[in-house]
Amino acid sequence: IGPVQVDFSNTVNGILFLIFFGLTAPILFDLASIAAKFFIYHPLERIIQAEENIAVILRSSRDLNRLMSSLAKEIAQVIDYKEIFIYLSKRGDANFFHQVFPVGERTLHMEQDLLLQYLAKNQDLLHSPEVHYLGIDLKPSQELVNHHIDISFPIYYNSQLLGVVMLDNNKKLIYQQQLDFLKEVNKYLDIAIGSLLLYQQAMADKEEK
């Protein structure tokens, strides 16, 4: 009987496979968990329901703080964001924006803020990964980084930039359905905020009389 031959190549391949599987398994598991979480907790029905709730809130509310708070809660039903910031232009100075939700002392000025300039010009939602993927002007994307946010969209009414919404999503993956949801919210918000500010102005003028 001759000497026993051991196929080291198969052994090495087996070891390499085990090492590869061990290294990639946690990543694959995380990706699967994210996908499962999205389809389980963010079905189309929930997005539709959130849109309907937001439409009702924006139509019925005359209190700006309550409106913003309810809006933030409904958005959180679809997007598990870390923070949300909403700025509105100051009455009498359309270039000056102050933080109205959550109430704070942060301010932005059109002449000094490239993000505001971009949103005023393009009137569309800005999403950092899309900017990089499409290869468009990267300056707005850098502004998102400077503001520590991932998504921003304008509040536009009667050809004027009234405000801006900023979302810090902690650099988590955003699905197209979620982006489409935000774009729908943006449409409702434009009309609602414009109408609310006009209403508040009318009430203020009435009190002055």
Mean pLDDT: 79
What is the rounded Rg?
24 Å
Q: Biggest sheet, in brief?
A: 6 strands, antiparallel
Unreliable segments of 5+ consecutive residues: none
The H/E string reads HHHEEEHEHHEEH
In total, how many beta strands?
6
Q: Report strand %.
A: 15-25%
Tell me the span between the first and last alpha carbons: 114 Å
- Number of helical runs? 7
The level of helicity is 55-70%
Coarse structural class: alpha+beta
Quaternary assembly: single chain
What is the general shape? globular
Strand order in the sheet with the most strands: 3-2-1-6-5-4
Question: Could you characterize what this model shows?
Answer:
This protein is an alpha+beta fold. The protein has seven helices and six strands; from the N terminus they run αααβββαβααββα. The chain has a six-stranded antiparallel sheet with strand order 3-2-1-6-5-4, with helices on both faces. Helix 2 (44-60) packs antiparallel against helix 3 and helix 2 packs parallel to helix 7 (176-208). It is globular, with a radius of gyration of 24 Å.
In short:
The chain is of the alpha+beta class and 209 residues long.
Describe this protein with a few key phrases.
about 210 residues, 6 strands, about 60% helix
